[in-house]
């Protein structure tokens, strides 16, 4: 009888320990979830960085691009073309992260709702790497940030001859801008051993100057899309058949390349090594 009582006591103790432990774990996990910062990211590039750093978010941009797996079932909050402020407000975020080139599309409306807006500079690869370091510090993910930045280190290139490259940013309406070496892709071109031509200055993109383009006569043209890539490609193909474009070496030699998302984007992202490798291949073909 005493032996049976002892066994029952041991079993009860085990049940209490296991059940109590399960309750404790559940409460702990619930508290972690409750204490996590409520963050919304508004571009695919930001979503990719936050996913790699394992920083949880509560809202992601509306996009046709593939989002990280952890974000697949999260609420969509629009994009810089059509931000869904109502949706953003309804998610009660503490902070909304926006590419600093797109702040104007969000600032006024979010200020009205007293939501903290954090601009992030992804203009060039170096800016992206700096932002990753800052986010790692902000959310105590320093080691993850260091590891992620290591994947973005590009090899140094020494070209025997610099290929002259024109970077164009096409708009859905048929207009376009010229990328300088201050743009993300322009910077990668020069890192890969090329020379960006057709535009200069401190801005990433400037208005086209056909006199300068004709004078510098680029050997290769890269076309990016600001939005609606298929429409942009069709419009730019028509544009490059007009006027003096037919006299440009890149057009005559059919060295026109249409960069596609996510590898080629207006601002820096985690696909920089793939974009760099592709640029190197294209420039190699143009130099033959």
Account of the 3D structure:
By secondary structure, the chain is of the alpha/beta class. It has two domains: 39-150, Rossmann fold, CATH 3.40.50; 164-286, Rossmann fold, CATH 3.40.50.1980. 43% of the residues lie in helices and 13% in strands. The protein is built from eleven helices and nine strands. It has helices at residues 2-35, 44-52, 85-90, 107-112, 125-138, 142-150, 184-191, 210-216, 229-239, 249-252, 272-286, and strands spanning 39-41, 95-99, 116-120, 164-170, 176-179, 195-196, 205-206, 220-225, 256-258. A hairpin with a 5-residue loop joins strand 4 (164-170) and strand 5 (176-179). The longest helix has 34 residues, at 2-35. The protein is globular. Belongs to the bacterial solute-binding protein 8 family. Pfam families: Peripla_BP_2 (PF01497). Residues 38-287 form the Fe/B12 periplasmic-binding domain.
Number of domains: 2
Main β sheet profile: 6 strands, mixed
Give the CATH class of the largest domain: Alpha Beta
Question: What share of the residues does DSSP label as strand, in percent?
Answer: 5-15%
Query: Which structural category fits the helices and strands?
Result: alpha/beta
- The tally of strands reads 9
Number of helices, counting only DSSP H or I runs of 4 residues or more? 11
Question: Summary?
Answer:
The chain has 288 residues and is an alpha/beta fold. 43% of the residues lie in helices and 13% in strands.
Question: What is the element layout, followed by pairings?
Answer:
Elements: H1 2-35, E1 39-41, H2 44-52, H3 85-90, E2 95-99, H4 107-112, E3 116-120, H5 125-138, H6 142-150, E4 164-170, E5 176-179, H7 184-191, E6 195-196, E7 205-206, H8 210-216, E8 220-225, H9 229-239, H10 249-252, E9 256-258, H11 272-286
Parallel strand pairs: 1-2, 2-3, 4-6, 4-8, 8-9
Antiparallel strand pairs: 4-5, 5-7
């Amino acid at each position: 009888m005493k032996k049976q009582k002892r066994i029952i006591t041991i079993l009860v103790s085990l049940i209490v320990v296991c059940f109590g432990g399960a309750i404790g774990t559940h409460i702990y996990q619930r508290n972690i979830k409750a204490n996590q910062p409520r963050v919304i990211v508004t571009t695919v590039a930001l979503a990719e960085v936050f996913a790699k750093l394992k920083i949880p978010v509560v809202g992601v941009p509306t996009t046709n691009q593939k989002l990280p797996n952890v974000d697949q079932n999260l609420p969509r909050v629009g994009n810089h073309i059509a931000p869904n402020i109502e949706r953003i407000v309804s998610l009660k975020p503490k902070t909304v992260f926006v590419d600093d080139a797109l702040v104007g599309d969000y600032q006024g409306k979010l200020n009205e709702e007293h939501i903290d807006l954090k601009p992030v500079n992804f203009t060039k690869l170096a800016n992206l790497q700096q932002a990753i370091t800052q986010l790692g510090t902000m959310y105590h993910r320093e080691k993850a940030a260091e590891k992620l930045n290591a994947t973005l280190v590009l090899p140094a290139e020494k070209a025997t001859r610099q290929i002259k490259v024109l970077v164009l940013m096409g708009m859905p309406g048929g207009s376009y801008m010229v990328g300088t070496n201050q743009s993300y892709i322009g910077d990668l071109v020069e890192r890969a051993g090329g020379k960006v031509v057709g535009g200069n200055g401190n801005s990433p993109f400037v208005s086209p100057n056909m006199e300068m383009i004709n004078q510098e006569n680029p050997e290769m043209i890269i076309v990016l899309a600001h939005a609606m890539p298929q429409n942009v490609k069709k419009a730019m193909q028509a544009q490059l058949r007009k006027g003096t474009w037919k006299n440009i070496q890149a057009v005559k030699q059919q060295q026109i390349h249409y960069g596609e998302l996510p590898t080629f984007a207006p601002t820096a992202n985690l696909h920089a090594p793939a974009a760099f490798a592709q640029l190197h291949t294209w420039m190699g073909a143009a130099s033959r």
